[in-house]
Amino acid sequence: MQSTSSLLRIIPTLLLAGFVGQLTHAASTAPKEWVDADTGHRVVRLSEEPGTASFYFHQNAYSGEGDKVVVTMEQGIGTIDLETHENRLIVADPRAETLVVGKRSRSIYYIVEEAGNRTVYAAQLDSGDIRKIGELPANANVTSLNADETLLLGSFPEAGPEQIAAARHQVSDREFNPQTGERLSYQEQREWGLKKRMDARLPMALFVIDTRTGGGSHRPPGNRLAQSSPVFSDGPRPHPLLPRRPLAHGGSTLDRED
Fold first, then answer.
1. What is the rounded CA–CA span in Å between residue 69 and residue 201?
2. Where are the alpha helices (DSSP H) in the chain?
3. What does each C-alpha distance from 117 to 134, 164, 210, 223 come to in angstroms?
4. CA-based radius of gyration for the chain
5. What is the per-residue pLDDT across 184-198, written as a single tens digit (0 to 9) for each?
6. Coil, strand or helix: which one is 249?
7. pLDDT, tens digit, for every residue of 15-35?
8. How many CA atoms lie within 13 A of 195 on its CB side?
9. Residues 165, 166, 170, 171: is their CA dihedral positive or negative?
10. CA-angle at 136, arms to 68 and 192, nearest 5°
11. What is the per-residue pLDDT for 251?
12. Helix 161-170 with 186-199: angle, nearest 10 deg
């Protein structure tokens, strides 16, 4: 006969299994299309793949023709045909970080990090063909693609590992007001983090990568991009065309164009 303690260990497992089974059944039996009673809008379920997610609001996720939308899946990056609703995996790598969809080439640009190296790739939405564009400088991030898809734009800190580590620790998320102990709203947490990031005064540089050759426009010590001379560097001295002006909330400064 099983002991009471053994039964107590088994019962929660059975309950959890039953709950998961109910969720799976609900997902499989939910309608694929319905009309919202409050708004009258027709709602269509586009994906049945668990873990499918859309891009963040500033990332273009649609093809130029509007026939496909790119999404992230548990296995990597996929597309959904907005007419047939076909779901297709085109980048089978869960490490892939999506950047933006190029409307001209119908490609999704993305980054994969492996053994500390971050590399930019492009995958064609229709053929699934993948091409390597180039490796990024240390601690670099890509944020934008120009209109004709010839250049990717990004930034990186021109600082040593100790400075970067100290800044990251200083900018770590704060959940409570240090004076009152009250929980901060999401907006207040973001404001605090952005202010502390500027207070860290890490010199930053912008760089561009040629999407056809993988060549770059900035080459500080140790990076792997070709050529030299930064596009813009926010070092100790302000750029002559971007005057440094004080910001609100105490002493931080930001270079900006009038």
1. 39
2. 4-29, 161-170, 186-199
3. 11, 17, 18, 10
4. 24
5. 888 888 887 778 777
6. coil
7. 444 434 444 444 556 788 999
8. 13
9. negative
10. 85
11. 38
12. 150
Closest residue by Cα to residue 136 from 58, 76, 202, 205: 205
Task: Tokens for 110, please give them.
Answer: 């993305």
Q: Mean of the per-residue pLDDT values for the chain?
A: 75
In which band, very low, low, confident or very high, does the pLDDT at 216 lie, cut at 50, 70 and 90?
A: low
Q: How many residues does the chain have?
A: 258
Asked if residue 258 has pLDDT above 80, the reply is no
Fill in the DSSP letter of residue 149: S
Cβ atoms of 79 and 71 within 8 Å: the answer is: yes
Dist. CA 70–CA 64, nearest whole Å: 12
Phi, psi of 7 (to 5 degrees): -65, -40
56 three-state secondary structure: coil
47-84 residues labelled b (16+ CB within 10 A) or e (exposed): beeeeeeebeeebebebeeeebbbbbbeebbbbbebee
Global model pTM greater than 0.85: no
**Which two structure tokens, joined as six digits, stand for 247?**
């910001």
Phi, psi dihedrals of residue 151, rounded to the nearest 5° = -135, 135
C-alpha torsion sign, points 235, 238, 243, 246: positive
Locus of tokens 């045909």: 81
| 63-88 per-position pLDDT tens digit | 999 999 999 999 999 999 999 999 99
* Residue located via tokens 């990024």: 136
